[in-house]
UniProtKB/TrEMBL annotation:
Signal peptide: none annotated. Keywords: Amino-acid biosynthesis, Aromatic amino acid biosynthesis, Cytoplasm, Transferase. Pathway: Metabolic intermediate biosynthesis; chorismate biosynthesis; chorismate from D-erythrose 4-phosphate and phosphoenolpyruvate: step 6/7. This is 3-phosphoshikimate 1-carboxyvinyltransferase. Its EC number is 2.5.1.19. It catalyses: 3-phosphoshikimate + phosphoenolpyruvate = 5-O-(1-carboxyvinyl)-3-phosphoshikimate + phosphate. Coiled coil: none annotated. Residues 1-23 are annotated as: Disordered. The active site is at D297. It comes from Rhizobium changzhiense. The gene is aroA. SUPFAM superfamilies: EPT/RTPC-like. It is found in: Cytoplasm.
Length: 420
């Protein structure tokens, strides 16, 4: 399929209203796929996301002997043998952080060698803290550059009573170890170290998914979890809609003064980004300071929305946005300044957005570099709802987590001019 080179958004000039459903949660789908793959028996995952990130996870599990059927657009039927087999070739996981980190730890449960690799962006995303923590368990694991590719020479077993992990750069390291730990042969305590403990909400998602697949995991202190060596059992599992995807629709609603029915109330989500709803609802009176540490994937949405706010907004607690699909702090400041010079600035790892409600209705031609990052493409599309001339480069990168994004906006009445 040829990729669309750029997409110019035509401001709808009216409130966006109607029904627009976000897809299934990426975070939950990739947890459920792995846990179902580690279980013995057949699990049925419904409401799941089908996108680049979940396809990479499913393909990797297939390469390790898991049977996965896809009877429709939102269902995976996963049959595991209770053991992952060594794959014949390196696992290629694109730029899917969840798949890469979760499978690196799960590879310790494989009796044989697993190479976990990704695209050129993933090869710049750090995985050193996870590799180091696995080494302390006696697992033979190496990542020469501190980023993928990672080689894990597993024996199918590991020895540990306690794992200490710094989740400051990525909470996914912690989630990965928690999911692996239930496959051990004795109880394991997993303890967070370091000052910055990352997005705890994602760890709650992990423990909830583990429990749904039969694991016993208990929080024994604010920074420690005890995981029993239960392994996993097959389960039927419903994936909730994606809260990060929902943020674009919530923001489109307030920006255009419309009424978008997502088919799910904002308080029904268990994912961390759902907390962005209460902030978005305050638009155009967003807080002067927003701490993004516990809802990092919502920061691009909030930052672009802030450009139209009554007063400036400073984003704090977002240092690890520099090691996401791209350096999101840089991508946001670059894109906003491309619209109007001086619209954003970086101060250390903080991002300050100089709001300007008078942007609405202006003709300001700007080509926005997505940096191959779905969230940069999706959030800047919001600016195109109110400013004439916003062009998103590489719009197809939304396929990472929300392949139907452009169609979803179109169904609400947004039109485009695309150029190959
Ligand atoms: O556990 C998860 O599902 C995720 C955790 C977050 O990443 P980090 O833990 O790397 O911050 C988030 O940005 C990512 O999109 C999904
Ligand atoms: C950071 C993200 O993804 P991941 O880390 O799973 O690649 C994201 O989806 O915004």
């Amino acid at each position: 399929m040829t990729r669309t080179a750029k997409l110019t958004i035509i401001p709808p000039g009216r409130p966006l209203s109607g029904r627009a459903m976000p897809p299934g949660s990426k975070s939950i789908t990739n947890r459920a796929l792995l846990l179902a793959g580690l279980a013995k028996g057949t699990s049925r995952l419904t409401g799941a996301l089908k996108s680049d990130d979940t396809r990479y996870m499913a393909e990797a599990l297939r390469a390790m002997g898991v049977a996965i059927d896809e009877p429709d657009d939102t269902t995976f039927v996963v049959t595991g043998s209770g053991r992952l087999k060594p794959p014949k070739a390196p696992l290629f996981l694109g730029n899917a952080g969840t798949a890469t980190r979760f499978l690196t730890a799960a590879a310790a449960l494989v009796d044989g060698t697993v190479v976990v690799d990704g695209d050129e962006h993933m090869r710049k995303r750090p995985i050193g803290p996870l590799v180091e923590a696995m080494r302390t368990l006696g697992i033979d694991v190496s990542a020469e550059t501190g980023c993928p590719p990672v080689t894990v020479k597993g024996t199918g077993r590991f020895q540990a009573d306690r794992i200490r992990i710094d989740g400051g750069l990525s909470s996914q390291y912690v989630s990965a170890l928690l999911m692996m730990a239930a496959g051990g042969d004795r109880p394991v305590d997993i303890e967070l170290i370091g000052e910055d403990i990352g997005a705890l909400g994602y760890i709650d998602l992990t423990t909830a998914a583990m429990k749904a697949f039969g694991a016993k995991v208990e929080k024994t202190s604010p920074v420690t979890w005890r995981v029993e060596p239960t392994g996993y059992r097959a389960a039927d599992f419903i994936v909730e809609p994606d809260a990060s995807a929902a943020t674009y629709l919530w923001a489109a609603e307030v920006l255009t003064g419309g009424a978008i029915d997502l088919g799910v109330p904002s308080d029904a989500f268990s994912q961390p980004d759902a907390r962005a709803y209460d902030i978005i609802a305050k638009f155009p009176h967003l807080p002067a300071e927003i701490d993004g540490s516990q809802m990092q994937d919502a920061v691009p949405t909030l930052a672009v929305l802030s450009a139209f706010n009554e007063t400036p907004v400073r984003f704090v607690g977002i240092a690890n946005l520099r090691v996401k699909e791209c350096d999101r702090i840089r991508a946001l400041s670059t894109g906003l300044n491309r619209i109007v010079s001086g619209l954003a600035r970086e101060e250390g790892d903080d991002l300050i957005v100089q709001s300007d409600p008078a942007l609405v209705g202006q003709h300001l031609p700007a080509e926005i570099d997505s940096f191959a990052d779905h969230r940069i493409a999706m959030s800047f599309a919001l600016a195109g709802l109110k400013i004439d001339g916003i062009t998103i480069l590489d719009p197809d990168c939304v396929a990472k987590t929300f392949p139907a994004y452009w169609r979803t906006l179109a169904a609400l009445g947004v039109t485009y001019q695309d150029q190959d």
